[in-house]
UniProtKB/TrEMBL annotation:
This is Glycine/D-amino acid oxidase. It comes from Marinactinospora thermotolerans DSM 45154. GO terms for cellular component: cytoplasm. Pfam families: DAO (PF01266). Residues 48-410 form the FAD dependent oxidoreductase domain. Coiled coil: none annotated.
Length: 478
């Protein structure tokens, strides 16, 4: 029998430590304190399907398995608590994959890309209905997503995507002038963009904690603070934890950034840190600049800025590409923000009148970027009964609903449009191993910071900086 033993950096209880919980998780636990329904696993257990990971992907997979095959015995384990990872740390943008349409075309064709885009748009509606039907108050608000240029150099970054959408004869986004984009959020540092009206914003932790409650009510056996330590192949797959052993017909790894430590999955993606801050409520200040609360923004730089408001009038502002992980270890990217000063400077540049707003909470969290900029699923070679999904590249809430369908189909042996979708074709490219990955990533991130500084000031970017900054994980895919 083959053992797959997880490295010491694998998620473990206390990562992130409770005192390092995100703003979203603190709000979720304030509304619904821990209920004792998901104890640590002690001893031996058996199930049909064991799901590892209690975030969106794991919970959607468990729920989809029960929808497809009622009566299936599903267990779910998480190293921390459900939502303790990226599902409780992201910005709460619920949006289709239209912004990734060019990447979808690259891994499939225009017809399949359109199908997935339409399914992702439907997923936005499905999640809204799920919240309503199950009485989950996740601060859900229909919204428009603005893909903006926050410097003149970014103008037109969406042109290839819009051309591909036009070729597929679908028009979910519309172009806006510089003046139109400025009016939406009250900043003079917008220079054009495209708008997708079919989106929403929410508290991501309240969504995932609500999903946990629904899964428990439907009979999923959930064990929090139960990290996976090893897998053993055999007639039934053995899932080892510090105090227990699960025997399962099928296993689903839904651990996202941490999947980089399993087999060669990490060669297909790079993990970087994202810093996010949330201010104290300031609805009058937002109203004074004319910000429409139904607009959520990301700009077009590689180390993107993202910003939105909350229902109680807070400003959320974040920045990606803050730092790179060494050894494909996402566990070190939790807690206090790594470059809060840089995030504040970008916020002040875009919104000078909001620069003095007190920051109530800030955190850093890992994001995994695949070589295709899209999630992918597959089966482990060393432990054949184990399936995985990873690589969301920063767009995970709606996409995780689709990946839940993919992983449920694979785990149940169903043959359908999801088991054969473009997401089940793992990228064939690879990223060099550490230390080359870590050193190279930091060189590129430094070049990107320098390029942003030049472009934000409207200055010409030196050729060496431009060349280094042009290196992208997608360059390693084929």
């Amino acid at each position: 029998m083959t053992d797959l033993v997880l490295r010491p950096g694998w998620p473990r209880p206390g990562v992130p430590a409770p005192q390092q919980r995100t703003f979203w998780m603190r709000q979720a636990f304030a509304d619904e304190p821990e209920d004792g329904r998901a104890p640590r696993l002690e001893g031996a257990a058996s199930c049909d399907v064991c799901v590892v990971g209690g975030g969106y992907t794991g919970l959607w997979t468990a729920l989809e398995i029960l929808r497809r095959a009622p009566g299936t015995d599903v267990m779910l384990i998480d190293a921390d608590v459900c939502g303790g990872g990226a599902s409780g740390a992201n910005a709460g943008y619920l949006m289709p994959l239209w912004g990734r349409f060019a990447a979808l075309v690259a891994i499939s064709d225009h017809a399949e890309a359109r199908r997935i885009g339409e399914e992702s748009a439907l997923a936005v509606q499905e999640i809204g209905s799920f919240l309503h039907d199950n009485g989950i108050d996740a601060d859900y608000r229909p919204a428009s997503w603005l893909w903006a240029a926050s410097s003149r150099a970014q103008d037109g970054a969406w042109h290839q995507t819009m051309r591909d959408l036009d070729r597929a004869e679908v028009a979910p986004m519309r172009p806006l002038s510089a003046e139109e984009t400025r009016r939406l959020t009250g900043t003079r540092h917008h220079f054009g963009g495209v708008l997708d009206p079919g989106c929403a914003t929410l508290n991501p932790a309240k969504l995932v904690r609500g999903m946990r409650r629904v899964a428990l009510d439907l009979g999923v056996r959930v064990h929090e603070r139960t990290p996976l330590t090893a897998l053993r192949a055999g007639r039934r797959t053995q899932v080892r934890t510090p105090r227990g052993l699960i025997s399962a017909d099928r296993v689903v790894l839904a651990v996202n950034a941490w999947a980089g430590q399993v087999e060669d999955i990490g060669r297909r993606m790079v993990t970087v840190a994202t810093d996010t801050l949330v201010t104290r409520p300031a609805p009058d200040a937002l109203e004074a600049i004319g910000w429409d609360g139904d607009i959520a923004v990301t700009d077009s730089r590689r180390r993107l800025n993202f910003y939105r408001t909350t229902p109680d009038g807070r400003l959320l502002f974040g920045k990606g590409g803050i730092a790179a992980a060494y050894g494909r270890n996402a566990s070190g990217m939790w807690g206090a923000p790594l470059r809060l000063g840089e995030v504040k400077r970008q916020m002040a540049r875009l919104f000078p009148s909001l620069a003095g707003l007190p920051v109530e909470h800030a955190w850093t969290a890992p994001v995994e970027y695949s070589v295709t900029s899209l999630p992918f699923a597959g089966r482990l070679r060393s432990v054949p009964g184990v399936y995985y999904g990873a690589g969301y590249s920063g767009d995970g809430i709606a996409a995780s609903r689709l990946m839940g369908k993919v992983l449920a189909a694979l785990a149940l042996g169903d043959r359908d449009e999801w088991s054969d979708s473009a997401f089940t074709r793992p990228p064939s490219g690879w990223i060099p191993p550490d230390p080359f990955r870590y050193l190279g990533a930091n060189v590129v991130l430094s070049a990107l910071r320098a390029r942003e500084a030049y472009e934000d000031r409207g200055r010409r970017v030196p050729v060496p900086v431009r060349l280094l900054a042009s290196i992208d994980p997608s360059a390693f895919g084929h």
